[in-house]
Amino acid sequence: MSKYKVNDLKEPEFVLMDKLKHSDLFPFIKKAHQKRNLVFYFFNSINLLFGIVLLTLMLKEVVKGDFRFSEEFTYFSYGLISTFALIPLHEYIHALAYKFVGATNTSYAMNLRKFYFMAMADKFVADSKEFRIVILAPFVSISIVCLILYVSFSGIWKFYPIGLFFTHTLFCSGDFGLLSYLESNKSKEIYTYDDKASGESVSYTH
User: Exposed, middle or buried, 173 (CB in 10 Å: 0-12/13-18/19+)?
Assistant: First the structure.
């Protein structure tokens, strides 16, 4: 748990880095994804690799005559659609991760028009390590569940968890954008907190 409180983040010991309005989340994420760092290459590589594996698997089953492409795509689409139902769980896992690193006051925010959803820990100061745990918790947890489902299912139903994993990974682009922000500033120790009242997240460096 971070040893600092919001009132501790004062100059000259701490320097303000960013104030991110939650309504401006998408431009911030887009800019973060433009950074050519380890997170950028990992996120794009995993999507490219998964796309190649998926196409290979689908073609293999079609050639064998086990399934038609339309059948595979139908069950893949079931997973894709189910991902929307995972959004509350995704944010709940973020909140659980916040509690794991020491936060006590968690809440949620969303904007359907801009299609963003987020979990917050009002006025809880998280350091870089803690924030990485919060960011990655849903991706890691749900990916493991998708893997278990893939191993457990048989036949055409295997395409369901594939669709679930693929779409959820794309939905994690915001999380990976925040991770890219941390990676681009890995030489600094960053402290960040959410201000629910002002609708913004604030980052300081030490």
Answer: middle
